[in-house]
Amino acid sequence: MSTLWKINCMENAYPGMWQRWFKEQCVAVGWASAWGYKLDGENKGDRGWSTARNAIKRMAIGDYVVVALRNHRVGRIGQITGKAIGDDEWDPLVPRSPGMTDGEMGRRILVRWELTTGPDNQELVVQLPEENRLNIGELRPTVARVFSLTSDKLRMVMNDQENWVNLLGKFGYEKALSDYIGNYPNRLEDGLLPHPNLKIRERVFKDRRRSDVLLMDKNKKPVVVECKQHSPSVYDINQLRHYMQLLQDETRENPRGILVHGGAPKISHEVIAAAKKLQPVEIVSYSIEVNFRKSF
Predict the structure, then answer these.
(1) What was the pLDDT predicted at 135?
(2) Alpha-carbon distance 237 to 246, whole Å?
(3) What pLDDT digit, counting tens, does each position of 201-219 carry?
(4) DSSP string, 91-160
(5) Residue 288, pLDDT score
(6) 95-119 pLDDT, tens per residue?
(7) 230, 288, 239: which is closest to 264 by C-alpha?
């Protein structure tokens, strides 16, 4: 039976790396031999390299590898077709430059991507739901064998379109999103308007915290909006409900709460249950689309 491996894609350090892996039909790690990291024999004593070295040496043609991104997201599953991991096979995916004379990510594992598993759009990736996530022991190393999920289970999760999210949906959009909702609240819900009382709208609560956006609906009921980049958690629900309670204590009005998130449309049963409790919280997902056109 083929082994399933996980390899981290360092999109935070090297933006666009996942797209490059997809195009080049490979995954890769760093630790160049020129830096003292040898594939065989003595090495620099780096624990991360020792773990990665053992893993990539054990990877076999026919095994499967899933690309792991930050915040419990994955890109694609690929079947290993070859390896170019030798000290003399260094072929960096991060180009050589004056500040990086050897480049980076040069030990390659060649793969054939499963194009029928997961999104067919390269701009989309898969948000693993809470009940189907890699464990800590699999997440931490750069390369690790996966035991917590079978290949078939992973494919089933990845083919569920409710788990698909935008690759760029995890960057610093919270402030921009809250500003957008504050200026165009009707895009969130018909009839929403900025709260008419500026002092309340810009209020810092007695615990020195403040919500992202404070609106008023068509029934003149205050609406507290909290924006999150990631899939909502029970902690996020409780945080928003805390703001709602603070507003109620200070204004004697019973507000609504809306949590706007950039994670997958499908959310966990635990979060749904928490949102339905006393002082219910509405949950809404957002997506971002940017279009370009020539100015002349």
Answers:
(1) 95
(2) 14
(3) 556 666 566 667 889 899 9
(4) --SB--BTTBTT-B--EEEEEEE-TTSS-SSTTEEEE--GGG---HHHHSSSEEE--SS-HHHHHHHHT-
(5) 74
(6) 888 888 999 999 999 999 999 999 9
(7) 230
